[in-house]
């Protein structure tokens, strides 16, 4: 049956409404084995090979909590500034689904692992001033993942569905935000910040292509100034930033059109259709009581006492948002640059070493973000396997700062540094690229250049001082870029003035 596309409201009508969004984000915790059994969590194994009675949900099989999953969940909660509950427990969430062999998911309900955190997002909407905003995090809880249904065939020809239970029992942390987000841009900024933090501390790889980070978006609209939230629809399983943005924008236009025409939004679960960019109603939304939650009788409650918490906290690295702020003050970076340089832990570590080895950390930042990142990209490598160690960037920028090489010469040295893994000083030595700051040698070149360009010298003396730029260029060229530009300028002025 062909879907009937609903009416979408135009932008000027949407203007009258306020958008309200809350995200539920699932991240796969980076354990080697599953949450309640010792099957591997490895990706892309042949279907139904990483399974055992526990994750197959066979009657009588008993789950055992994976300690590492708890630790990674606690550290994620701490990085999101949540309070970790010393006492929490798992709960059964009962529902039927073909890829859920137990007939229930083991999750957490009234006593989650952690509650009450926040993240600061940096939003840069197109054509508007950037701003920051604090987004509340309601809770973080642990749960097991379901298996996967794989559908094949087209229309009514060769249509089969298969179940792969390799993923069944993979540990997840679900992170629920407050309904604090007010636009698709804010939703994307929040997911981005969350991903960065979780990835940075290593609780999850957050690899979206492997489904290690998935997001459900709850979206509602209300007339600006209305006292109550509107009814929300939940769009399930968004696995890219682009899809999140598209899904939210589609939902907003769909809901506004319904409300404007006097209709009512039904609370429901919707699917995002990646090809058409539409959301499609899947089922009316369950309420918590539909799931018949009850405490999981096969697992003891989870106790994460003060001592264990302190130990896990002490193992956390400096958090990316703290490091970003420190880069701004310690190295005099712009906020945006600090954000780029802390986007991954490896990159932050790399830059920090370069900055420490440099007499000009700001210039080191520019080299890392410019030439170096460009070269990494072209060579298909990242900070961790850079052929140029950070100390070389430190040395290069120090030489520029001290006036021992010009920026131009540095640009010549850099590709050699990258290709041959040699320090800047070693390349200069080998290629005889020493900067000429010996005044005698530069004066000699200047005299030659002035003799060869009498017309320009005439013009200069007649008051056309702009030709000085041309003459400096000629001197630099004659010195093969090795003369100190400052010295050339000074000496040339002196000679022309004389
Ligand atoms: P459930 O578990 O049924 O999905 P929750 O109470 O956990 O429901 O809420 C899920 C998400 O919905 C949260 O992120 C919350 O911020 C968001 N949310 C709640 N009410 C609204 C609303 N009216 N509009 C948009 N989002 C909402
Ligand atoms: Mg939900
Ligand atoms: Zn198993």
What would a concise description of this structure say?
39% of the residues lie in helices and 21% in strands.
> Given the C-alpha coordinates, what overall shape results?
elongated
| Secondary structure: helix percent | 25-40%
Small-molecule components bound: adenosine-5'-diphosphate, magnesium ion, zinc ion
- Structural class, by secondary structure, is alpha+beta
Kindly report the average pLDDT value.
92
Walk me through the structure.
It is a single chain. The chain has 498 residues and is an alpha+beta fold. Helix content is 39%, strand content 21%. The protein is built from 16 helices and 16 strands. It has helices at 11-14, 67-79, 184-201, 241-260, 306-314, 320-330, 335-341, 345-356, 361-379, 390-401, 407-420, 424-431, 439-452, 454-461, 467-478, 485-497, and strands spanning 17-28, 83-84, 87-88, 91-94, 104-107, 114-123, 131-144, 148-154, 157-164, 171-177, 213-223, 233-238, 268-273, 278-284, 294-295, 302-303. It has a 9-stranded mixed β-sheet with strand order 2-6-7-10-1-11-12-13-14. A 3-stranded antiparallel β-sheet has the order 5-4-15, with no helix packed on it. Strands 3-16 form a two-stranded antiparallel ribbon. It is elongated. It starts with 10 loop residues before the first helix and ends with a helix. The mean pLDDT is 92. Adenosine-5'-diphosphate is lined by residues 20-24, 176-179, 218-220, 229-230, 232, 234.
